[in-house]
Design brief:
five-stranded antiparallel β-sheet, FAD/NAD(P)-binding domain, Arc Repressor Mutant, subunit A, binds flavin-adenine dinucleotide, alpha+beta, 3 domains, 22% strand
């Protein structure tokens, strides 16, 4: 029987941040994840922006956590080396109505504690971002916004949690939860593989968090999945946006942004579309066309011949339109549910809050003197043994990535950890070599190494490739 003080369901950025936070204490902790790696949900497919905290409405949970989370990133990156750049953001205004929205955003941000906001005129904007549209008249500048690599953050949090004694179970889907004894926190967490026992549960299951809550009869919220699609361009286009460039927000959300990524690519997106399924993350040609057209209002001259790929993520929008965090009506069952944007930004602050909520529920938090907050970086450039020419990733980096405590037998897992296969050839030249290294490392047949899980080599061609070809024909 596997018995834990705390079981966290879901290994996205929220579950992993909570696991790492709790690993400071003398506790038995497990993370249970249904996919074959951490960061397979929203945490791998988002804008990667560490928001300044001016957009989330003051007085909401999102407003409360986003600024606090933002302020924690620099130290977190010093400890975990996942990659964070405080590049600043601009909300672009094209007319008087937009300008009023900038004033509203500034006032809202100040209520959230964002004390570095400035309204810039056109000349000031152009001096900072020479490639923005001629139609831009003003911008709201937030120097403390930044960009990060969301999956590298999630992996780093998990690596560090494992270093500090947390057990992580991948490929393990929670199918039911019940209470062993009335009135006491003795949960039985039933998975397809095993039964786990825990005194406390943290529900960090993203778009599935309402289903997990329902297993214990909690039905006071539901999740409406909202898809967001993106286009990623080569690093050769990264110079077109040195900051995160937002358009003014609407009732649909923050709108289409143009941004450099942490690693220097140019990224466009996302849209926001409610969807019926919770696992369909394909991209759609019409949506991609809309993203390109809308992004050109911010930066007109990006070159779509440099498109690398498209991808999509699902926001876990809750019916309460806010994060659901903290104690629930079932004693010992703690929610970290419905964490849509700015959840990535908020994650370190949410993790601290959840630890506090667990303590308030009776969990004794005794500091573990052996806790080590530092996790060495994986991505260290080497000159020899280069496997991925585009991103200059060496064999020793791949082996380092495979030896951090999780069993990774898929190419995407190596990609998220090292960037191998992520460059301009998108893995055409190095995928086979990466598969060979994975097979050798684990002592398995190369045929057992998959792209991103069973059956993934047989996936149909992605629509983005066709889109890329068609668009280039029409632009040439
Ligand atoms: C399009 C888009 C853009 C965004 N942009 C930003 C941004 O720029 N900045 C920002 O701050 N935030 C952004 N966000 C929000 C951010 O990505 C999320 O808030 C964050 O990733 C949520 O993390 P999570 O751990 O709650 O969810 P997830 O990452 O989805 O993790 C939940 C995990 O639970 C697992 N799980 C579910 N059910 C079970 C089960 N039964 N058993 C076991 N495991 C289970 C899933 O497999 C998954 O791995 C964006 C989100 C999207 C979709």
């Amino acid at each position: 029987m596997k018995k834990y003080d705390v079981v966290i369901i879901g290994a996205g950025v929220i579950g992993c941040a909570i696991a790492r936070e709790l690993s400071r204490y003398q506790l038995n902790i497990a993370v249970i994840e249904k996919e074959n790696d951490v960061s397979c949900g929203a945490s791998k497919a988002n804008s990667g922006i560490v928001h300044g905290g001016f957009d989330a409405k003051a007085g909401t949970r999102k407003g409360y956590f986003s600024r606090r989370g933002n302020r924690m990133y620099a130290k977190l990156d010093e400890e975990l080396h996942f990659g964070y750049l405080e590049c600043g953001s601009l909300v672009l205004a094209y007319n008087e109505e937009d300008y009023q929205k900038l004033l509203d955003l500034k006032a809202n941000g100040e209520k959230n504690g964002v004390d570095d906001l400035q309204i810039l005129n056109r000349e000031e904007v152009i001096a900072m971002e020479p490639h923005v549209s001629e139609d831009v008249k003003h911008a709201l500048y937030c120097p403390s916004s930044g960009v990060t690599s969301p999956y590298e953050l999630t992996i780093a949090l998990c690596d560090n949690a494992i270093q500090n004694g947390v057990d992580v179970f991948l490929n393990t889907e929670v199918v039911n939860i019940d209470l062993d004894k009335d009135g006491e926190h003795d949960f039985r967490i039933v998975t397809k593989e095993e039964i786990y026992h825990a005194d406390y549960i943290v529900n960090a299951a993203g778009v599935f968090s309402d289903r997990i809550a329902k297993m214990l009869g909690i039905d006071d919220f539901y999740i409406i999945p909202r898809k967001g699609e993106y286009i990623l361009l080569d690093k050769k286009q990264g110079h077109l946006a040195q900051h995160v460039l937002f358009q003014t927000p609407s009732h649909k959300g923050k709108g289409i942004l143009v941004t450099r990524t942490y690693h220097g690519n140019l990224m466009l997106g996302p849209n926001a579309q409610e969807v019926d399924t919770r696992d369909e993350i394909g991209t759609n040609e019409d949506v991609l066309k809309y993203i390109v057209d809308t992004a050109r209002h911010s930066v007109p001259d990006f070159d779509m011949r440099f498109m690398l790929t498209s991808f999509a993520g699902l926001r876990a929008t809750s019916s309460t339109h806010d994060f659901i965090v903290g104690r629930s009506k079932v004693p010992g069952f703690i929610q970290a549910a419905g964490i849509e944007s700015p959840g990535l930004t908020s994650s370190p602050a949410i993790a601290k809050y959840i630890a506090d909520e667990l303590s308030q529920s009776g969990l004794e938090l005794i500091e573990d003197p052996s806790f080590n907050p530092n996790r060495p970086p994986i991505i260290q450039k080497q000159d020899k043994d280069i496997v991925c020419l585009c991103e200059q990733v060496s064999k020793s980096e791949i082996i380092d990535a495979l030896s951090r405590g999780l069993y990774i037998d898929h190419i995407d897992g190596v990609k998220r950890r090292t960037r191998a296969t992520m460059g301009s050839c998108q893995g055409h030249r190095c995928r086979e070599k990466v598969a060979t290294i994975i097979a050798e490392y684990h002592g398995i047949d190369k045929e057992e190494v998959t792209l991103r899980g069973k059956g993934s080599f047989e996936l149909p061609p992605r629509e983005d490739r066709m889109f890329w070809k068609k668009l280039n024909q029409s632009e040439d």
